[in-house]
Amino acid sequence: MVYDSVYGNTQKIAEAVGGALAGETKVVRVNEVDPARLGQIDLLIVGSPTLGGRPSEPMQDFLVRIPGTAVKGLKFATFDTRYSGKFVRVFGFAAEKIGENLVSKGGVQSSPPEPFYVKGKKGPLKEGELERAANWARGLSR
Ligand SMILES: Cc1cc2nc3c(=O)[nH]c(=O)nc-3n(C[C@H](O)[C@H](O)[C@H](O)COP(=O)(O)O)c2cc1C
Questions:
Q1: What is the Cα gyration radius of the chain?
Q2: Is the CA virtual torsion 54, 83, 137, 113 positive or negative?
Q3: Closest residue (by CA) to atom 16 of ligand 1?
Q4: Which of 19, 21, 110, 139 lies most in the core, judged by the most C-beta atoms within 10 Å?
């Protein structure tokens, strides 16, 4: 799993997801991943904060640097953290944008983009989101 996090919310979700996944699992921050070597795994999970309707800058950079050959045919799932208010919808969200990017490179989206919600602008996470993250992870097919 590749994640980014500025205020720690997405990191907490990433750790909950990583802890609940079956099989050998690596949870790695986006700046520590070689985007050319993603093809050597059987499920790629990507998680990012939504900032200004988009993934974080390091996550956007990472997506740009992934060569098409690295994700072609690779199964993936995305999640993000975001506000729970309705007014932000027009700007879009990180998980959908990451998904569109990976699909455009030939990745195979194995489940819909999953949102996890924070209470304030910088968090904390809403109650129950860590448990929901673990459940989401258990439902992902590998
Ligand atoms: C500067 C800033 C911009 C944000 N923009 C959005 C946004 O456009 N849409 C949204 O749903 N949430 C937005 N949020 C809420 C963040 O997505 C939320 O705090 C997220 O959990 C941060 O993740 P992190 O703690 O892993 O960095 C924003 C938060 C900040 C601080």
A1: 14
A2: negative
A3: 82
A4: 21
Ligand 1 pocket check for 123: Cβ under 6 Å: yes
* Ligand 1 pocket residue status of 92, Cβ below 6 Å: no
* Each residue's pLDDT tens digit, 93-120: 999 999 999 999 999 999 999 999 999 9
C-beta 7 within 6 A of ligand 1: yes
The CA 81 to ligand 1 mean position distance, Å, reads: 7
Band of residue 85 on the pLDDT scale cut at 50, 70, 90: confident
Contacts of 73 (CB under 8 A, 6+ apart): 106, 107, 108
Domain boundaries defined on the chain: 2-139
Distance of CA 116 from the midpoint of ligand 1 (Å): 11
pLDDT > 70: percent of the chain: 96
Measured in residues, the chain has a length of 142
- Out of 2.115.10.20, 3.40.718.10, 3.40.50.1110, 3.40.50.360, the CATH code matching 2-139 is 3.40.50.360
Q: Which atom of ligand 1 lies nearest, measured to the CA of 116? A: 21
